[in-house]
Design goal:
This protein has a five-stranded mixed sheet with strand order 1-5-3-4-2. It has two domains: about 150 residues, no CATH class; about 190 residues, no CATH class. The protein is built from 16 helices and five strands. The N and C termini lie far apart (about 70 Å). By secondary structure, it is an alpha/beta fold. About 50% of the residues lie in helices and about 10% in strands.
C-alpha cells in the first residue's frame, strides 16, 4: 500500500508563502485553470484576511525533493487553493488595491480603502505587517502515488462548481496529455477568438478526439465524454489509442489552420467550430482539398439572408438553413451534428441552390 500522509505545514505566513511561490508548481496536470477569480472576488479575499475571517485550507503536495516540470524545478505542487494563493501574491505584488468600500470591522476605519500593498506599508504599516504575518492553514500531502493526489484533488473540489472539463482533467489518464498537446497548436492558440478560460479549449479538444474515434459525428454530451475519457484511462493500450486519435485530429486541425485567420470571427461559436472540425476530419481522411475561407463566409451570409423572408416563402434549401440554426441549440447531439454537417457540405457543393 502506498504511503499517504496529510499534516500541517510548519511555517505558513502570507509573507513566507509569497517568498516560496517560485518553488510551488501551481499548475500540475490535475489542477483547474488559474486566473478565474474576478478582481472583486480577489479583493474580498484580502478584505477577509485583514478582518480576521477564517479561510479554507490550502493543500500542497510535498514532492520530497526538487521536481522538474517544463524546464523549472519545484519543491511543492499545489493541490487546492490556487485562486486564493494567486490573489494573495497579486496583492503583495501590487497588481490590485483594496476595494474602495473596505472597512476595518473592529475599528470602523476606512483609511486603507483603495490602497495597494506598498501604499499600505507606507500609510498603515501596522496593518501591512499584520497582513504579511498572518498564518494560513496549509496542509502538506506526503505520498509518491500521484493517483492518490489526484483523487484528493477531486474530493476536495466535489463541493466546488468545477465544470465537466475540469473534472475530467482532474481524473487524469492518456486523454489529458493528448488534449494538452492539441491545444498547443496554432489553431487553438491563435485562430480561436476565445480563450481556454475554464478549460474551454480542453473540452473542445476532447470532443475532437471523440469524433476522431467515431470518424464522424457522435454524441458528445457530458456523460458520453466522461465515458470516453474513462474508457481510455482504464484501457491497457490507452496511451497508444489516445496518441492515434490525437494524430487523426491533428491532421484535421492542420487543415483548419490553413483556412482560418487569427482570432477568426467565423470561429466565435463553439457549435460552428464543431461542424467545421467534422467537415475537415472527413476531408483529411479522404485527402480532399479544404474549402476557401470566403466560401465559409458566404455560407454565414446565406444563413442571415433568410431572416428577411417569411418562412413560408423560403425554398426547401433555405428552410434547411433555418433548421441548421435551430439545431445550434443542440451542439452535442449526434443527429443535430449530422444534419448541420450535411447542410454545410451541400452548400459548399452547390451554393446557388440555397439562394434560389
Amino acid at each position: 500500500m502506498s504511503h499517504f500522509d496529510v499534516s500541517p505545514m510548519r511555517t505558513t505566513s502570507v509573507a513566507f508563502l509569497h517568498g516560496l511561490r517560485n518553488s510551488i508548481n501551481v499548475a500540475p496536470p490535475y489542477q483547474r485553470q488559474g486566473e478565474v477569480w474576478t478582481r472583486p472576488k480577489q479583493q474580498l479575499l484580502i478584505d477577509s484576511l485583514l478582518n480576521g475571517f477564517d479561510l479554507p485550507k490550502i493543500y500542497l503536495h510535498d514532492l520530497a525533493g526538487w521536481e522538474l516540470e517544463a524546464g523549472r524545478e519545484y519543491r511543492y505542487a499545489l493541490v487546492d487553493g490556487r485562486q486564493r494563493l494567486e490573489a494573495l501574491w497579486d496583492f503583495l505584488d501590487g497588481r490590485f488595491a483594496l476595494s474602495a468600500d473596505y472597512v476595518e470591522l473592529e475599528t470602523g476605519s476606512t483609511g486603507p480603502a483603495g490602497l495597494t500593498y506598498s501604499e499600505l506599508q507606507t500609510q498603515f504599516p501596522e496593518t501591512a505587517a499584520l497582513f504579511s504575518a498572518t498564518s494560513l492553514d496549509v496542509m502538506l500531502i506526503r505520498t509518491n502515488d500521484l493517483e492518490l493526489v489526484e483523487e484528493m484533488f477531486s474530493r476536495l473540489n466535489e463541493a466546488v462548481p468545477l465544470n465537466a472539463a475540469e473534472k475530467r482533467n482532474g481524473r487524469g489518464g492518456p486523454l489529458r496529455q493528448a488534449t494538452r498537446e492539441l491545444i498547443e497548436s496554432p489553431f487553438f492558440v491563435d485562430r480561436l477568438p476565445f480563450s481556454n478560460r475554464r478549460f474551454r479549449h480542453l473540452d473542445l479538444a476532447t470532443k475532437f478526439l471523440a469524433w476522431s474515434q467515431s470518424e464522424g459525428p457522435s454524441d458528445t454530451k457530458k456523460s458520453r465524454l466522461d465515458e470516453f475519457w474513462d474508457e481510455l484511462r482504464t484501457a491497457a493500450d490507452g496511451d497508444a489509442l489516445a496518441q492515434a486519435l490525437r494524430e487523426r485530429a491533428a491532421s484535421a486541425i492542420t487543415m483548419l489552420e490553413q483556412t482560418f485567420t487569427s482570432k477568426d470571427r467565423l470561429l466565435s461559436s463553439i457549435g460552428m467550430v464543431s461542424v467545421y472540425f467534422l467537415l475537415y476530419l472527413e476531408l483529411a481522411a479522404t485527402g480532399a482539398a479544404p474549402p476557401a475561407r470566403n466560401s465559409l463566409q458566404a455560407f454565414e451570409e446565406a444563413r442571415r439572408v433568410r431572416y428577411d423572408n417569411d418562412e413560408e416563402e423560403l425554398s426547401a434549401a433555405q428552410r434547411r438553413l433555418l433548421e441548421f440554426d435551430r439545431l445550434s441549440q443542440s451542439p452535442n447531439d449526434q443527429s443535430a451534428l449530422k444534419f448541420r454537417l450535411q447542410v454545410l457540405k451541400d452548400y459548399l457543393a452547390d451554393p446557388a441552390v440555397f439562394s434560389a
